[in-house]
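Re: that chain you flagged

S.,

Sorry for the slow reply, it's been a week of failed gels. I finally had a moment to sit down with the sequence you sent. For the record, here it is as I used it:
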Amino acid sequence: MSLSILNNISSLEAQDSLTTTQSSLNKTLQALSTGQRINSGADDAAGLAIANGLEANITALSQSVMNATDGVGMLQVADGALSQVTSMLNRGITLATEAASGTVSASQDTALDAEYQSILTEIGNIGTATTYNGQQILTGGSMTVYMSDSSANGNASVSVNMQTLTTTALTLNGTDLTSAANAATALGDLNNAIAAVASWRGTLGASSNQLSDASNVMNNQITNLTSAESGIMDANIGQETADLSKYSILQQTGIAALQQSNSMQQNVLKLLQ
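Prediction finished late last night. Pasting the structure tokens below so you have them in one place:
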């Protein structure tokens, strides 16, 4: 091999190798510090695109689970209010049964009717005062829970018709216990009202179960999608640790080789002595 003072080829080669090693070492250190195999599009463009799509799915599904949970919460509030209404109607049954008896005096009928009317008033109050997130939920209309995984075909919704809770809707408006005959009529209306409330609660319960089932399915999807995203994005810590050791050693040997190749130029001076 000829000696030259103009170009040190071995030094250039050592520099190139050292630059490559340093780049690999930096990439390994970044993977270890972030825990991610892909930290930029340059690392794996296709993998990054897939992982970002999965992340969008996970984000949408996570919010959809929250939507379903909110929907279940609202239905539970409505059911709780209707449960109280059922208890009040049952108290009305007791009062009407007592008032329908011929052994009750007129003054006692008046007292029984006073309590009965207060029950009807409170049922109306429950209908207007029951709210969820600041919205009345027993005054009619509908509630729709939207769920999505962010894809074009991954959308679903659950709609629940919210009936109106009033004494008129329960056919109790105008009923009284001022006489045995009126009490007997009210008794039949109260039984019908209890059946209507029970049916309504059954509808709400079915919708609540549907939302809970949907939430369970979405949570399962989130788990599987997170696993898939993790498989793409997560760094192999064992491999990265091994690479860190390898590139650290290569960096040291590369620096030593560069020093040695640079010192070789000094041999030319010996020929001039």
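What I noticed first: Strands lie at 131-132, 135-136, 142-148, 155-161.

Talk soon,
D.
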